[in-house]
Amino acid sequence: MQRKLKTLPLSKVKIKESFLGSRAKVVRENTIPYQWEALNDLVQDAEPSYAVRNFRIVAGEVEGEYGGRVFQDSDVYKWLEAVGFYLEVHEDPEIEEKADYLIDLIEKAQEPDGYINTYYTLVEPENRWTNLRENHELYCAGHMIEAAVAYYKGTGKRKFLDIACRFADYIHSVFGYEPDKKRGYPGHEEIELALVKLYDVTKNKKYLDLSSYFIEERGKNPHYFDLEAKKRTHSNRNFDNSYYQAHLPVREQETAEGHAVRAVYLYSGITDIAAETGDEELFAVCKRIWKNVLERRMYIHGGIGSIAYGEAFTFDYDLPNDIAYAETCAAIGLVFWASRMLQCEPDREYSDVIERALYNGILSGISLDGTKYFYVNPLEIWPERREKRNDRNRDRQARLQARRQGWWGTACCPPNIARLMGSLGQYIYSYKDNEVYVHLYLDNETEFEINGQNVVISQKTNYPWDENIRLVVQMESELEFTLALRIPGWCRDAKLMVNGKSVDINDKMTRGYALVKRLWKQGDDVTLRLAMPVERIQANPEVRDNVGKVALQRGPVLYCLEEVDHGKNVFDITLPRNAEFSIKYDPDLLGGVSVISTTAYRSEENEWKNTLYKIANNNRKIIDIQAVPYFAWANRAPGEMVVWIKEC
Amino acid sequence: MQRKLKTLPLSKVKIKESFLGSRAKVVRENTIPYQWEALNDLVQDAEPSYAVRNFRIVAGEVEGEYGGRVFQDSDVYKWLEAVGFYLEVHEDPEIEEKADYLIDLIEKAQEPDGYINTYYTLVEPENRWTNLRENHELYCAGHMIEAAVAYYKGTGKRKFLDIACRFADYIHSVFGYEPDKKRGYPGHEEIELALVKLYDVTKNKKYLDLSSYFIEERGKNPHYFDLEAKKRTHSNRNFDNSYYQAHLPVREQETAEGHAVRAVYLYSGITDIAAETGDEELFAVCKRIWKNVLERRMYIHGGIGSIAYGEAFTFDYDLPNDIAYAETCAAIGLVFWASRMLQCEPDREYSDVIERALYNGILSGISLDGTKYFYVNPLEIWPERREKRNDRNRDRQARLQARRQGWWGTACCPPNIARLMGSLGQYIYSYKDNEVYVHLYLDNETEFEINGQNVVISQKTNYPWDENIRLVVQMESELEFTLALRIPGWCRDAKLMVNGKSVDINDKMTRGYALVKRLWKQGDDVTLRLAMPVERIQANPEVRDNVGKVALQRGPVLYCLEEVDHGKNVFDITLPRNAEFSIKYDPDLLGGVSVISTTAYRSEENEWKNTLYKIANNNRKIIDIQAVPYFAWANRAPGEMVVWIKEC
User: Fold this and answer.
1) I need a labelling partner for A132 at 20 to 30 A (CA). Which of A374, A580, B55, B560 fits?
2) Residue at a domain's end among B376, B394, B427
């Protein structure tokens, strides 16, 4: 087993302003500066973060007590990582200055042995590494390492990378198989994949070995978390070890279990180690857990995690729509993992998931202006149920809301979206010797080195609103290579033209990619037409919550019905099985989206006054409905929303 | 306002063995002896009750520590009440001896001042009346009083009644408006309605006044529960005052709130006080809360309480099917309340609810053999979801199960069913001077005194399986009176014959009753035919969980689909809107029930292997389905069940 494809440095991928590009631009222009304010507790009407303040206290700049959760440092790191990604492509001295200031603070927070964690330094310095299960020290370290790598790549500055290496070296001295080391591993995975990134830039193999150690040791008996817990006087949590994916040694795991974000971060790390070490058995673990997620535990919008309690996977086909957790971070983590799988094994089943999550369950997590966020991304909502049910789970279910928030106590998702959108360029293409894979379709101009020659590929498209994608190849001299074009799983009718001539793709398909191998010349022009009728999508009938319902999808974009378009009770809209749909692009709606229109049924509500149950009379009225892209819901007014529409 | 109708002593109503009668007989023959064993911790494979043992410890018969919840005494009382009801009609020296033994124990547990509560006597004798909100002393007292009244009526023995009066006298000396008394009231209502029963047999008005006091004082400011809580060092609970229906003074309450059993016990007590005192304003409170329940907060099976947390009402139209709480006790309490409303205001809307709950959401609470019980009565269940979701509510949701239990820690429901079925005779008829109301249809022979003359009415029917009900009037001499026959709300076609001649009921209808006034003679024969086609019932579309679904009902009996008849995934059964139903009585199935058969649709599951989402193809196959009465579900094998079936 080897990683078959490579991704490009972000600096090689110039994203233009079509749909996804404009979303990435909003993140750069609005979200990054907004989150600086939020992390510095400067946003009015939003909960304070305390994240920067904690570093300033450690650095002696201000006085005060530690604020926020034990993992608050990670929000600073994720923001820095996003900044690193953007700086790799766009100069921005103002933001860079802020980032450098933060890095100075981080340096000051680093203890002489290399350790950094403002919570432990300020609150319980004597208890370092005593609660790996719950207290996120290694998780924060992982995010610092990822940020440092991105900032080094984005700016060329080594300072942050050196800080990270010192911390990683110290961690390496604490954890491992040697008798004098702790045999622990993190309660929240993240450092595993981060250490592989650090190895990638430093080529220092001990980071790879440490990552491998964390993965292999996980879940073994005697169980570290249990031994550790016995030495403590209290525990914050009652979760069992499956919540931490530590119920079994990693190589014995069969299904996706526990906290969804933890899970996909771990699976990403496992995939990295499998790819770096060529470990087939480890890759087989990834494959079978992937199949479990893809075939039984993933929402149609790419979200994962079915319930608030534990923010967790539950069991096969348990995908409730109203209490869906589908944390934004979990869908992002799924993209991280899918992308790693894709480089190992070029197959549409991975890139389809990347696209599914990106256009739906991730973009839904951020408002159109980039400054409000969803933690939880339900597939339907009846806001009264969330507001009025006095429920034992209310603290966690409170995150399940009908409006996005400016910030909140555990604001893991907002900077996670920022870093994903900042690194969008790495998900569009992969390549190897003489093959270029095109995974995502959006306007960009990208430079490859193929067999020693520079090749520039330009994409021009109004995807996902338009069916046509044009790719133009620019190069100095002729060169034979394969252009592998993803034909999305949602597409029933794809047409390809090269230099204006139709090309039959049926004999070119390999695992969902049309492999166009030819002697390419300067100016060669490829046009791909992916037919985008409105599709009624059904879920496997084992998903009991979706029987008798369809979701509307056009291209990669999932649609929903909102109260703002239909009045109260969008649940009472039923779609005829033979509905005919029309599509219209509305440049003034929701930042410019295509809207689906059709007619549907609704109850004759005036028959029902003061009646709760009565004999069915089959009366119903016909109404016009319009579905809007799910990712854009709750950008006009809060209210009811459904993705899965009843059919009749 | 006055109570317009009276109920009959149980001794006057001889129930025969048609459907409901045979259920009542099972309770007498199986349930009462079984529960004696359970209360004495003699049932293997069931959780111990400790309830009798606590009394035996107090009486010095055994040594040990108090066991069970603070309200464990009430289970003994409810069993004794059921025994009292049955002894009023059937001699049973063996059970009577056991009951007398318990009453001796209760006498020994009575402290010199009259107080009885084994929890406080054994565990915290110094803390009597310090935690009215949570600790159920007055609730247990209420159940003791109800039991004592029933036992006195059933056996003529005064001993238990005297014990109850001594306790009630003591309670009267502790609580009230006088400055030297506590201004408290119970956290769990029950004593209010019990004191009215005690007043009814003793004619001692102070019991009525005390009941009235408890009702009027409830929810006033300064709030007793809050003042009381301040004096304690700890609290078991975090519920707000609406859980206890103490969020507002009773006269200001508009909607049904909080713990559903508490609520309907309170509303029963309020109705009693309104009826006894002629207080129109108080009755108006009952009416408006009744309308709120009937029109917005009641399940189709007569269950109430939408969520496990707080076992509580939530908000209008929030009637989830899978997490429905619908505690058996709550449906029973709804019958208590409806019956009281019905005596004040003869109207089918009350008797329809009695019938709805009785045949569906209450009978479901007990197995066909009378020895297994449901605490919670969901409208659908996917057992895997209950077993595999590791949920924060799991302790309470654990009560939501796919199989009935032999006993459990808070076994309030089993003896509650026993006392309801033991007092079934009081729900069939009401009467006044020269009117006899027939509310329920089942085989019985009942003696009335109308204008000083004895009249015996015999009902002969195989209801609810058969449409025909025959009533024969026996009397010494002719007498004019009105026979008021309930025409159930579910019935679209009722035909009446008197002595073989058709009588048009259309001009005789008053609030759902056909008032047949005539000069009755010996042997007059009334035949009522209530057409019972299978009806597809819809819920108000505001109930978002039921849009696009129908429930099948025939006569008063609600039906469901069970896994045992259809294999896994009964959720994947869709009914055509034009389905044609056939009905067949099967004497060998589930103790003898009518089964509904029809054809329906199911997914082509072999299209779905390893696929979670795909483009809808409208394929489906036609299958035969059979629906069985909901009350009898889970008597064959545990499995999936749905009441609300998708329509297409």
Assistant:
1) A374
2) B427
